[in-house]
Structures
1.
Amino acid sequence: MRAVNVLLYEGFTTMDALGPAEALSRALDDGRKCYEIEYFSVAGGLVGGSTNAKIWTRKLNEIAKFDVLLVPGGFAARKLAHESGFIAILGELARRHEYVIAVCTGSVLLAKIGLLDGMEATSNKLSWQWAILEAPGVRWIRGARWCVSGKFYTGSGVSAGIDAALGFIADMHGRDEAQRIARAMEYVWNSDKNADLF
C-alpha cells in the first residue's frame, strides 16, 4: 500500500485536505486499498482547520514512505508563503515525494519553492491576483480545474481538490476506477481538467 502524506498547518481549509483524502482512500486495485492516508505537521499534535475540526498529526520526521504528498490551501497560506522556514521544509518534502497534489492556495505554497517555475499550475480564482503576484515564474492557467505538470498536480478552489484527486486516480489506476469512486461518493466529477466553471 502506498502512502498519502497530508501536510497540515493551523488554519488549513478542511475540504482541501479531507476531500482529496476521501477520494484517494477509496482507490482499489484488485479489491485491495491502494493508499493509506497519514497526517503530518511540522510540530505534530492537534492541528485545527477552517471548520474548527482538529486532526491529530505526526511529526514530519516520522514519514516512512514518500509516495504522495497532499498540500491543502487556506487563508493561513498567505502568511506561510512568506515564512522561509516552512517553505524550505515544504521544498524538501516536495522533492522527496514521487507525486505532489496541491489544492487551492496550497498551489502557491508549492510555487514559492520554485519547483513550478515555467510549469503550468492553477489555484483558487478568488485568490488569483495574489497567486500570480506571489509566483510570477509559474505559467498560471486560469481556466483550468486542475493542472498536471510532471509529478505535480495543482487544483483550483476547494472542491476542485476532489476533481484533481480523481484525475490523479484516473492517471494512476484508470478512468473507470475514478468514475467508480465518484459514483460511490455520489459526487459529480468535473472530469475535464481544462474546464473550470469559476
2.
Amino acid sequence: MSTGRLKVAVSRAKEQTGLMLIRDATPADWPTIWPFLQKIVAAGDTFTYSPELGEEEAEAAWMVRAPGRVVVAEAASGGVVGTANMYANRAGPGAHIASASYMVDPDHQGRGGGRALVLDSLRWARARGFRGMQFNAVAETNSYAIRLYESLGFTIIGTTPGGFRHPVEGDVGLHVMFCPL
C-alpha cells in the first residue's frame, strides 16, 4: 500500500463496515471539506480561526502544500468524514517538530475518524524524521480532542490562561500539547 493511502480498522460498533480509508487530499476534495470545515469554524468553540472565515482564505490555510500534507478520511460506507493537515510546527531550528490539525464532520463524530486521522499524522511525522508533534492551540473545553490526544501519548505541557475566547464559556485556557516521536 502506498504511503498516501492507509486503511485503519475501527470498532465495528462505531463504524458499521469496520474500515476507515485515509488518503491524500486533492483539490477536488475541497468542495466536500468546505461545508463541514465552515460549520466547525463558524461554531467558534474549537479552532482559533475567525468564525467569519471565508472559503478562499480557508482553502489557502487548510490545504497546505508540500512538504506538508493534507488528507481526508473516508468511511468505508462512502464519503469524506474528516480531514487533517500536517506540517513542520516552525521553520529553521524548530523544523524537527511536527504539528497537525484535524476536523471531523460533526455528523460523523464518534465513529473513529478523528483517531484514524491522528494516527495517520503520527505515522507521517515519524516516517519523515520529526522528533515530536506539538499542538499549539487546543481549547481546554475541547474535552473529546484532549482525551483522544492523551490516549495517543500527548501531554499538556502548558496552558495560556484565558487564551481562547469560547462563545459560551467565555475566556478559557488554551493548551499546548506534545507527543515525543
3.
Amino acid sequence: MNFLTILLLAVGLAMDAFAVSIASGISIKSMHIYQPFVIASFFGIFQALMPVLGWCLGIRIADTVAGFDHWIIFAVLSFIGLKMIYEATFLKESEKVSASLGIYTLFILAVATSIDAFAVGITLSLLHSNIWFVVVTIGLVTFILSLGGVYLGKSFGHLFENKIEIAGGILLIALGTKILVENLYGWQIF
C-alpha cells in the first residue's frame, strides 16, 4: 500500500470518530481546555489498537485465503462503508451518541467507533502491509480529526455530522473497489 492509500484509509476509518467528536463537542456545555485532547486521545488510541488486534487474527488465516483475499478486502471495506452510510442516513441522533462524556462513555464510544478498524486490520494482514506504519497513521489521523471535530461541534453544531459519515463510507467503498480492481486486472489506480 502506498502512502496515499494508507492516508485515505485512515481518513475513512476516522470519520466515525470525527462525527462522534462533533457530537461530543455539541454536548459539552462548558468545555475545559483538556477535554478535546482527552476525547481525541481515546479515539486515536483505540483506532490504532484495533487494527493491530485484527492483524494478529488475520496473519493466522492469510495463507488459507490467499487466492481470494482481494474479494474479502472488497467485501469488508464495502460492508463497513455501507454500514457507515446507513447509520448516518437512518439512525436517530439519540441512537448514535450519549450526551454524557465520562471516562466510561468515552471508552464505549472509542470501542464502538473502532470496531470497523478491527475488520480492516484483518484485511491489512492479507495485503502484507507494514502494520506499524499503517496503525500509527490511522491513530494520528484519528486524533487530529477528532480534536478538530470537538472544536467544530462546539462551534458549528449539527451542520456536518451525517455528511461526514457518508463521505467516510463512500471513501471506504472506493478503497475496497480500488484494491479489487488492482488485483483482478493488475491496474495501479493510485
